[in-house]
């Protein structure tokens, strides 16, 4: 008998991976942790920049649109407070909704001219802003998961 033929017909155990030891629920919660921390951190960096540079540019854009320039200070809520809450997993859905609103206002005030534009390399001109918007919307829909300060049973998580 040919040993190679016998070896080819022998059933083999699947290769174990570190992820196979985790339950589907743990993988779901890990994905929720990853998306909320990633989006929260990336938006937070924009907020930190605005702390040092100020919100004058945004105030000017609001005034140009006929809105009170003082509303520009709400960007600190949308780009500092809300991302920190998302990262921690406290009032996560509400915080992510604030980021969604913040991004919709940014689209409306700053990025409307590029809404249907592509870059020279074929990408959407607003892909970064789109990532923030749709990433935050994903967090609104999924919640924080169990790897959060608020936990699975938190009212807004």
Describe what you observe in this structure.
By secondary structure, the protein is mainly alpha-helical. Helix content is 61%, strand content 0%. The chain is built from 6 helices and no strands. Helix 4 packs antiparallel against helix 5 and helix 5 packs antiparallel against helix 6. The longest helix is centred in the first third of the chain and has 30 residues.
Give a brief outline of the structure:
The chain has 157 residues and is mainly alpha-helical. It has six helices and no strands.
If you average the pLDDT, what whole number results? 87
Order of helices and strands: HHHHHH
Please report which band the strand proportion falls in: under 5%, 5-15%, 15-25%, 25-35%, 35-45% or over 45%.
Answer: under 5%
Largest beta-sheet details = none
> How far apart are the first and last residues' alpha carbons, in Å?
62 Å
Helix/strand-derived category reads: mainly alpha
Number of helices: 6
Q: What ranges have pLDDT less than 50 throughout 5 or more consecutive residues?
A: none
Radius of gyration: 22 Å
Q: What fraction, in percent, of the residue positions are helical? A: 55-70%
The global form is elongated
């Amino acid at each position: 008998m040919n040993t190679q033929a016998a070896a080819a017909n022998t059933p083999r155990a699947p290769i174990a991976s570190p992820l196979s030891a985790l339950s589907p629920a743990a993988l779901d919660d890990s994905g929720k942790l990853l998306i909320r921390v990633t989006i929260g951190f990336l938006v937070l960096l924009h907020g930190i920049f605005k702390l040092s540079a100020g919100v004058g540019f945004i105030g000017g854009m609001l005034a140009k649109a006929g809105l009170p320039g003082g509303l520009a200070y709400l960007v600190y809520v949308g780009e500092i407070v809300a991302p920190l809450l998302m990262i921690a997993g406290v009032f996560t859905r509400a915080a992510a909704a604030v980021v969604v609103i913040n991004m919709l206002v940014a689209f409306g005030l700053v990025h409307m001219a590029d809404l249907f534009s592509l870059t020279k390399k074929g990408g959407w001109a607003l892909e970064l802003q789109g990532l923030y918007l749709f990433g935050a919307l994903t967090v609104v829909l999924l919640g924080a998961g169990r790897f959060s300060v608020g936990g699975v049973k938190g009212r807004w998580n």
